[in-house]
Design goal:
This protein has 411 residues and is α+β, with helices and mostly antiparallel strands. 31% of the residues lie in helices and 23% in strands. An eight-stranded antiparallel beta sheet has the order 14-11-13-12-16-17-15-18, with helices on both faces. It is globular and about 70 Å long.
């Protein structure tokens, strides 16, 4: 039986509904936005009610001179981007499927992309938040000004909590100026070892790129096909992104080209204008390719990413590396379309991530596979503490139970 669905029109209506549910029916609640991330986490029983945030999508306050904006959680990312672009401003976080994804959903999953290297994540931009707890109480943290630091940092606590601690209703974000233009340098090198060497030697670069991406040939071919661009994909790719005024971008491209040429890179392709925008979008959307049997994310020390990417390539995985952040996105291709084959590949890669103090989580797979997959990664020392926090804030277990680490913690 499909779950019920409730669509509140205001925060107060949501608060009253959640309070009545906690006192009476005690149905489990699953907040949803654009429904682009419902596959995250473990398989769990169908929730009693889907709480759709689609009508909580209003612009609350936009003092553009203060470089902040307050919006309701159900606002689509693309609508936020268009509103900010009118004032030549941006939230510099790359969010896949922007036409569907909502601010609240992206925040709840702590989504980020290539520009994480230059700008950071949601935890760096959320300065105020409103939410409804499992008892229906509306609470707030932070404020609408950048210097507000009063109280506990509930903002960072709710970012990435996947709707398990509270239903986010409203958020205040600090902003950045919208760059005049963006561009990339795209180059192929003979091996991941060579890429690692070039990255190490670029640590003293005078340029300030906002993204440093590494792709193996399989991932590069997918990115180029999606972006409808003609770029080489026959060897590992190093893609460096820059943004700013046209003068700044030209200077950075020239400087990076000179520096890379001086350390042995034979050819740097410059990607500009519409092609650069399409490459950017394809790099952002790489982790959401739903046709593949499984997509994972590994986090490890940046210095070890190339070794991890090389092993994943040998295992037939399409690999994207956010090289400056130590994040690796892997897509298992059609050849790994059985659970046994996919499990064998992950069993090779998980120890590599763990040996570097990191982890490997599954972002997407067939629902029937979830019981055998590391949906939230291998157990961390923080998991029991996270489970205790969940019990404190949601003692009846009404908010998204069984989808996050609480289901995997036995102690």
């Amino acid at each position: 039986m499909s779950p019920l669905e409730f669509t509140p029109a205001t925060q107060l209506e949501l608060s009253r509904y959640v309070a009545e549910n906690a006192q009476n029916e005690r149905r489990t609640l699953c907040p949803v936005g654009g429904r682009t991330a419902l596959h995250f986490g473990f398989s769990a029983p169908e929730p009693g009610v889907l709480v759709s945030m689609s009508q909580l999508n209003r612009l609350v306050d936009y003092p553009a001179r203060d470089m902040t904006i307050t919006v309701e959680a159900g606002m689509r990312i693309i609508d936020l981007q268009r509103t900010l672009a009118e004032q030549r401003q941006q939230l510099p976080i790359d969010i896949a499927q922007a036409e569907r994804a909502t601010v609240g959903g992206a925040l709840a999953t702590n989504t980020s992309g290539p520009r994480r290297f230059g700008h950071g994540t949601f935890r760096d931009f959320v300065i105020g938040i409103s939410a409804v707890d499992a008892e229906g109480r509306l609470f707030k943290a932070g404020g609408r000004v950048v210097k507000n630091v009063a109280g506990y940092d509930i903002c960072k606590l709710l970012v990435g909590s996947r709707g398990t601690l509270g239903i986010v209703t409203q958020v205040t974000l600090k902003l950045r100026p919208l760059p005049e233009t963006t561009a990339q340098l795209w180059m192929t090198l003979d091996s991941f070892t060579e890429i690692e060497d070039r990255l190490q030697r670029l640590l003293t670069s005078q340029a300030r790129p906002n993204a440093v991406e590494v792709l193996n040939p399989a991932a590069a071919a997918l990115i180029v096909a999606s972006a409808r661009c003609e770029l080489p994909t026959d060897a590992p790719v190093l893609c460096i992104g820059v943004e700013g005024s046209r003068r700044e971008v030209e200077w950075q491209l020239d400087m990076l080209t000179q520096e890379l040429t001086s350390i042995g890179v034979q050819e740097c392709r410059q990607v500009r204008d519409h092609n650069a925008d399409r490459i950017w979008e394809s790099l952002t959307d790489f982790q959401t390719c739903a046709d593949d049997p499984l997509t994972f994310e590994a986090n490890l020390r940046p210095s070890q990413c190339m070794a991890f990417a090389e092993r994943a390539t040998q295992l037939g995985v399409a690999v994207q590396v956010h090289a400056g952040n130590g994040l690796v996105i892997g897509q298992l291709l059609d050849e790994a379309a059985t659970i046994d084959h996919s499990t064998a590949i992950l069993n090779e890669l998980r120890p590599l991530a763990r040996s570097q103090g990191g982890n490997l989580v599954v972002l997407h797979c067939d629902a029937e596979w979830k019981a055998r997959m590391p949906m939230c990664g291998d157990a961390e020392h923080s998991w029991p503490l996270m489970k205790q926090l969940k019990r404190k804030l949601d003692p009846q277990g009404l908010l998204n139970p069984g989808r996050f680490v609480d289901v995997a913690v036995t102690t």
